[in-house]
Amino acid sequence: MSWETGGTGRENEDLDAGRIPRPRAAVEEHALRAPAGGDGDGPGGTVLSHQVLKSLLGAWALSACSAEETAAVEEHLTECARCAEEALRLRDAVGLLHSGRSLDLDPMLRSRVLEGCLGRRPARIPVPSWAAPYDAETARLDALLRDFGAAEWHAPVRLRWYEDERSSQRRTTVAGVIRHLTAVDGLVSAALGLDDPLGSGVKPLSPTERTETYWAAAYQPPTRAVREPWRDQGHTLVRTVSFAGRGVGEISVPYGGFALPLRDALLERAFECWVHGGDIAKAVDYPYEPPSAPHLHRLIDLAARLLPATLAGRRRAGLAAPARELVAAGSPGRSLHLEVEGKGGGDWYIALDSPAAVGSPDHTVARVALDGVEFCRLVAGHVPPVEAAAGQEGDREAIDDVLSAAASLSRL
Q: Residue 163 gets which letter from DSSP?
């Protein structure tokens, strides 16, 4: 096949140089030749038609045109808006082909889109504020799980917590973590009269006992099939509390040795969902951000409110120093100032001598300062108490007791 030129005799030279062959002057292309020795705009004096110039846009975007072709195309682009628009699109596409540029999406894109959607359009039936963290954290974890392949569902995950004054751990898989969340979320389902994943008529069990029972009931290693039941259960919980009315937040949810009102139980479930979401993300080497600041504040507040009763329980077990005698009837006793910094932070005064007392800044004997996420890692049992606090001052015994109590809130 011959290629029409302007009589320069450089056809073979151009082909050997790896350039795109010049367009032929076919009838259907309507190429017009300039008069002999003329001053045409195209190569060798050839005036190239719109169709020919349009066909060169791809080569131009790849910088594969000759100097003459490039000049002709670029002159045409100043006159033809449609071709100019197409040329810009082709140049952008060529940029994606650069070997040093990843075609993968930003790993945080989904989280940002999800957060934006949750914040822009309020639900017709609003979710109670105390259920919103659970709603958001289950949605975030589900977004992480959605595109997992079979291998990722079987990725090993190490669950960590603080028990018997030392760090404990248990190995499972991504799918095993979701079965664990399903089993413990079932405590809330049962309290609301909904289906319990362990079945009806199950005697009250602690979260750890429920998990072990649910794991043992699996006839084969769990797979991606666990995602849909867990997500359906979460949707049902949020929908039920949204339609139930104001009093539903006070329903008691038993946790074995203790109970929480439903409003606190769903905050606790949001906390665990976030923590285990981080465990899963770490197992598959994927970034996972903390909850939004308002939600993180609620989770920190729940842990701070549980500390006086937890401290009293540890004192009864001989794991904390005895309470000091109250100065007068009705006195709140000593307090520890817990200063949580950063995202979701604030100030809490932890009553040290009575679980029923409210901490007071007027009776502060110690101060502990921590970052918000670091405090949550302590409560999750991921950080030993001796390594947790960034700033400490005052009664050393009170500080050690409160930090150990915070770590003992964790469990499998």
A: E
Helices (H), 317-410: 372-379, 396-407
User: Given this model, what pLDDT does residue 161 score?
Assistant: 95
Tokens 């770490």 belong to 282
What pLDDT, on the 0 to 100 scale, is given for residue 114? Answer: 66
Burial of 301 from C-beta contacts in 10 A (0-12 / 13-18 / 19+)? middle
Q: Which CATH architecture has domain 295-407?
A: 2-Layer Sandwich (3.30)
User: What three-state secondary structure class fits 51?
Assistant: helix
The per-residue pLDDT for 144 is 95
Instruction: Kindly report whether the global pTM for this prediction surpasses the value 0.85.
Output: no
Alpha helices in 66-146 (DSSP H): 67-77, 81-96, 109-120, 132-145
Helix axis angle, 372-379 relative to 396-407, nearest 10°?
A: 70
Give Cα separations from 400 to 168, 321, 357, 372, 384 (angstroms): 19, 10, 20, 18, 11
pLDDT at 246: 81
Measured N-to-C along each axis, helices 293-316 and 396-407 cross at an angle, to the nearest 10 degrees, of 110
Specify the domain boundaries for CATH 1.20.120.450 within the chain: 110-289
How far CA 282 is from CA of 97, 226, 257, in Å, comes to: 31, 20, 31
Domain with CATH 3.30.1050 in the chain: 295-407
pLDDT at res. 23? 44
The 10s digit of each residue's pLDDT in 316-329 is 999 999 988 665 55
pLDDT of residue 105: 62
| Helix ranges, 166-292 (H) | 174-191, 207-216, 227-244, 262-283
Between CA 205 and CA 190 the distance in angstroms is: 12
CATH architecture of 110-289: Up-down Bundle (1.20)
Which of 177, 372, 141, 377 shows the shortest CA–CA distance to 270? 141
Low-confidence ranges of the chain (pLDDT < 70): 1-46, 97-108, 110-111, 114-115, 118-124, 325-330
**391 φ/ψ sector (left φ>0, alpha ψ -120 to 50, else beta):** beta
